[in-house]
Amino acid sequence: MRVFAFAAAVIGALGGTLPVSGFEVEDQRVYPGSGDGVLRIISTADLDVFDPILRAYQIENPAVSIDYTVTGTSDLRDAIEGGAEFDLAISSAMDLQTKLVNDGFAQSYASPASLLPDWATWRNRLFGFTQEPAVMIVSDSVFAQGEAPRTRDDLIAMLRDNPARFQGKIGTYDVRRSGFGYLVATQDSRNGEAFWRLMEVMGRLDARLYCCSGEMIDDVASGRLALAYNVLGSYAAARLRDGGGFRIVALDDYVHVMLRTVLIPETAQNLSDAHGMIDFLTALNTRPELVAASGLPALDAAVLQENPALRPIRFGPGLLVFLDQLKRSNFLRSWESSLVQE
Amino acid sequence: MRQRSIRSRLVVQLVGVAAFLALVFFFVVRGVAERAAEGTQDDILSASAIAIADSLRSAEGRVTLDMPYSALSMLGSINEDRVFYRVTSGGVTLTGYADLPLPDATPQLGVAVFDTLTFRKDRVRMVSVMRAVGPATNTQAVTVSVAQTRLGLEALSQRITNLATAIGVAFFLVAAALSLWASNRALAPIQRMTDAVTRRGPSDLRKVTANPPTELVPLVEALNSFMGRLSSSLDRTEDFIAEAAHRVRTPLATVRAQAEITYRKLQKPEHKQAIREMIRAIDESSRSAGQMLDHAMVNFRADSLAQDALDLCAVLRETCDRLRPTADLKDILIHLEVPEGPVTFQGDGILLQAALQNVLDNAIKYSGEDSEITARIEPGEWISISISDQGRGFAGADLGQLTQRFQRGANAGDVVGSGLGLTIADEVARAHGGRLEIGDTKKGIGACVSLLLPLP
Lengths: 342, 456
What we know:
The complex is a heterodimer. By secondary structure, chain A is of the alpha/beta class.
């Protein structure tokens, strides 16, 4: 696959106009089918998460082989912009996916099977199929039942009032390394000054920075961290089923909900299977066994209606703002000056 | 070639006007709506570009930008169009899409420049604003361009076009139906006048009194004046004929009397023969003049028919008595066959007498010496007054033609006549709502002329 990626990079270089870059393949698996058709998927979701979904799809469509490639969110963006040939691109980075669509790297598909709510689809090219809140998790060993803060202001006050208790025991994403962390942090920053005050307080408490939700959850479960802020809710919920040690807190003031999205790159060859897979994914809420097996929460408008604090991140050109080079460097500078107080 | 009817002209013109107005309506609605939609997009683009320009800063001699989230998110609020932006300073792209073309014209301070161009395979609308950034000693002109595809606008435009088309077509249909209705309404008075004139009898030359619309007043006045002239001309003609006949008959009687006196004095048979011929000619002239008088009288009286209560038997008897001397000259016997009681009828006695006299006179004229004429009244479905003779009959002549003025039978031959007798009888019969039947007798000898009158 590295050869292929290299080839894609060369093709991109020959094309000349598009940004040229290869991409790093983290994992790859081929699910052979009985026929000739191949559905090539590039995705940021780990194989063990997506494996049940791919197998379920293949039971219904035994002819098609599935070639599933796992890469990072930025690598996925680079691959699609570089013209790498895939039939589907699945990513948790809504902003990068939105930019791919905006910049014309995605094909339109008027999906007849799925009538998605309008906050879950954009331009007939970008389809959300999971809703994953960014939550706070608190360690059972540090917080007694009912002691966990309910709002960001509560959290700020608690951290400020108990520096000794939380010193070095706060975790959050390193937004410089994590696309999801950056997306959620930038969305937080839009909701007032509380975010920056929180970052200041966390910085003073020598917050530990993580690349991924998994490690943060590990450290909270083991009690090494008292709490972790902005953890991917779906991962936390999955870990909670396997073992305890922590609680999930959806803050009352607002909770950003990230949508995992799928798009059809311009370079796609196998459109019929790509369409079939999109219909399959967007109907995930009709297959609770798959939701359970993959740990990917399906779209559910009822959940959003029950809890008005849940705010799905809106698709649209606004998501391009924090991808702007100047904006990003400004944001990172502010973030670093708040949080990384060397 | 006949001219197209006013109605169809009116309809065609009104429908044409309606079609024209519908088209104008369509273009105006579409134009205004699209202008409004384009204006909305331009406004939002301007707001976006200005929001970006407002967030330009100068830091340590370099231009920097902290783009507000709303600058781009506002563009996604009304549609799902793609958005591009570019910020340049002195030809160097500070941020955004470096391949987005620069505006055609360099924007001036405070004046936005709009362009419509193709970028990444789509038509985009682009607005560019200029902002001077930096300290007074070292200001840099920064151009902010924000572009958005027009797919939403095109979809909106399509919807507006569809709506405008639907409204235009509906407007046209309603207007066409209304113009049909309106032209029918407008022409109704003409139809009414036409009906009023058409319903009239052939000799009704009264003025048209139906209330005509203003536009038709000259036409109706012209028509009335024409009918007045026609009527008085007809009257004068009838008067003239009557006067002429009268004036001819009186001297003729004098001449005849003189001729008879002379006849008696003459001895030589050839002289007598000449005078007899003369008397005969005078008689014919006198009879013709009488018939012309009758005809004129019939025409005159038929318009205002008298309604006398008559006994038709008495009328017929009187007519026979009046002509019996003439019949006796040719040894013709007149049989009168009438019902015992009176046969009553409402009508003009003078006209009926004139009609019967002419028919009987014809019978005597065309009968041979020493023959018989039967005058008969038979009440039935119609009251039939028939005069049958033993003369030469009509010999299969065109019977319809004989009642026309001055038409004479094909076998009239040597018998002198004006051809007015049957015409008068026919006109009198029709004036009374009846008709004249002429034909040969059932026995095949001689003619039978019947005056059929409706039962009272």
